[in-house]
Write a structure and sequence with these properties.
The chain has a domain of 171 residues: TIM Barrel (Alpha-Beta Barrel). It is an alpha/beta fold. Helix 1 runs parallel beside helix 2, helix 1 packs across helix 11 and helix 7 crosses helix 9. Helix content is 41%, strand content 15%. The structure holds 2-phosphoglycolic acid.
Length: 249
């Protein structure tokens, strides 16, 4: 089974100046652990600043929060996977709940974005998660498995085995409400079972992260839940002390 992944999703926070200061403070505070992977997802404009500020440390990875489906062309305002790769990104978030629910990203687009990342040698981190109404209707696993199947539909099994998945219930993102460790484990088990259908035993190689109001106080119990292989953290990753504490978990 792979190493735990701690991923910071900065969303639309931290331009280059703030990002540089954050990384300086974080790397001064945080002692590297070789038994885990730490990834920063800054805004695209701050990506190269973060990479330079990290000074080539192999234990700290950097990714983009979004890419477009095509490699180049007339898509004003978008960034492609080859551009992100050239800038130094090793990972790309795909299908984050805000992309789906604020910007109307479809399952078909998440499939094309995962494929675009994979063909450029960027690891996709596919995000899936149900709305509160879907949870209350008992449809959580159906929604999550549908998003998973759709997102993975255009990539080969070998690529799937080297990517990562994040389960982020939409009602838990930025709300202060988290899934209980038991609820997270149940959904992670459904995701793992679906991956096993495609990958067999290699499904164990795919880290499945939990995200949604993770903080320094609840990180340990969520990370200890069976089947939870990492955390995708928004708000609490913007504070050096709390993010370093989460990375120390
Ligand atoms: P949150 O965001 O930790 O602020 O809930 C998580 C995310 O959106 O990835």
């Amino acid at each position: 089974m792979r190493r735990p992944v701690l991923a910071a999703n900065w969303k639309m926070h931290s331009g280059p100046t703030e990002a540089r200061a954050f990384i300086a403070a974080f790397t001064a505070r945080w002692t590297p652990h070789t038994d885990r992977t730490v990834i920063f997802f800054p805004p695209a404009i701050s990506l190269t600043t973060v990479i330079h500020a990290l000074g080539g440390r192999a234990d700290l990875g950097v990714g983009v929060q979004n890419i477009w489906t095509e490699d180049k062309g007339a898509f004003t305002g978008e960034n492609s996977a080859p551009i992100a790769k050239d800038a130094g990104a090793r990972y790309a978030l795909v299908g984050h709940s805000e992309r789906r629910h604020v910007f109307g990203e479809t399952d078909a687009q998440t499939a094309k974005k995962c494929a675009a990342a994979a063909r450029s040698g960027i690891t996709p981190l596919l995000c899936v998660g149900e709305l509160l109404a879907e949870r209350e209707a008992g449809a959580t696993n159906d929604v999550v498995v549908r998003q998973l199947e759709a997102g993975l539909s255009e990539i080969a099994a070998d690529t799937i085995a080297s990517m990562a998945i994040a389960y982020e219930p939409v009602w838990a993102i930025g709300t202060g409400k988290t899934a209980t460790p038991a609820d997270a484990s149940a959904v992670h088990a459904a995701i793992r079972a679906r991956l096993e259908k495609t990958l067999g035993q290699r499904a164990a190689e795919v880290p499945i992260l939990y995200g949604g109001s993770v903080n320094a106080g609840n990180a340990k119990s969520l990370l200890s839940a069976p089947g939870v292989n990492g955390l995708l953290v928004g708000g609490a990753s913007l504070d050096v002390q709390s993010w370093a504490a989460i990375c120390d978990t």
